[in-house]
Amino acid sequence: MNTTILVSGLGLIGGSIALNLMKHPNVHVIGYDQNQDTRNYAYHNRFIHQAVDSFNKGVQLADIVMLAMPVQGCIQAIQEMNEMQLDRAKLVTDVASVKKPILDAAAQWTNEQLRFVGGHPMAGSHKQGIIAAKAHLFENAYYLFVPGIRSTEQDVSQLQHLLRETKSHYVTVDKREHDQMTGVISHFPHLIASSLVHQAKKWQRVYPFTHELAAGGFRDITRIASSHPKMWNDILIQNKESIIPLLNDWIQEMNELKQFVEGNNHEQLHQYLKEAKVFRDDLPTKNKGAIPAFYDVFVDIKDQPGALSEVTHILAMANISIVNIRILEVREGITGALRLSFQTEADKNQCQYVLKRSGYDVMIQE
Ligand SMILES: NC(=O)c1ccc[n+]([C@@H]2O[C@H](COP(=O)([O-])OP(=O)(O)OC[C@H]3O[C@@H](n4cnc5c(N)ncnc54)[C@H](O)[C@@H]3O)[C@@H](O)[C@H]2O)c1
Ligand SMILES: O=C(O)C(=O)C[C@]1(C(=O)O)C=C[C@@H](O)C=C1
After folding, report:
1. Ligand showing the shortest atom-to-Cα distance for residue 93
2. What is the CATH code for 295-364?
3. Across-strand partners of 51?
């Protein structure tokens, strides 16, 4: 029997989820977005089977409702659903990055037709909108579930079955532990990334050339500062219960670091950096988790016209897809380096083989 699912909010996450639901043979996917152009784009590009022009209409037609809007929009939709006249039961889920405010809003439901299971696919991007959506976004990432009002184990299993094409790893957690864990590894780092960018911006007034020097390290650590400000504003305020203690800890830790540096305390500073390296090196980079499964290859190139296109031409000839390319360093007259990222280990190995064969110096990051 077919299950009808409404995806409300067809942006990066909603669009990517819809693409996966479309692969399920027994699912009819309805899409709603407050932006009409997005609804049209989703329908004409087969992200959904059917578009509706109101949230209420979509809810009436659906067996399952997936809320994929910003956190505040999800809370509002949860409140609206409580007031709807519904002729049959609905299972509602969401994808929001914060869980407690969402679960708390659903816990207020007096409408007996509604039951709720919170969801959060732990993968994403600093990009936004349906244009950035892709089916493989959640591959190998964790997808967290938080059972809520009137939900059963069968509801969680049904969602997991319907989302199987995401190829994500399912974990069930409690709303509080969810918000604390994601506060540490996802939300709080956004504040730090943005504050580093602000610091660089201030120094640019003193040395206008600062901006030009922002190379690999600064770019790596601040990538997420390019994310959608409105979405992150919502997340940080909605998860302030976790963010405030983390900010207090951080300020204390920065003061300790200041003392290590001021006091020339080589031993403690070295120990601090070493412990961070050990923990960072042990993060699951290849198969699971919030870090995308990219395989990197570093290639030395000459600083001369056409150097980049020669490398990409060799890879294109060998039918190898590059998912990201970054020029790490090209200074006048000297050799520079490219970082090429691939989605699979096979592509990485093949790249190494064909570039070495063409005389390039190639290094792999394990
Ligand atoms: N971006 C990430 O990395 C990421 C990862 C996991 C979860 N999330 C969560 O997913 C949700 C969506 O984020 P996104 O990155 O897809 O954002 P997005 O900006 O790419 O997409 C949001 C979409 O929702 C639509 N929308 C906004 N308010 C609406 C409303 N009231 N009704 C209907 N449509 C509405 C917008 O028009 C837009 O198309 C957020 O709750 C976010 O916390 C984001
Ligand atoms: O990769 C990114 O740019 C992300 O910010 C993705 C990220 C994360 O912090 O890891 C962001 C928000 C989520 O709710 C889940 C994933």
Report:
1. 1
2. 3.30.2130.10
3. 31
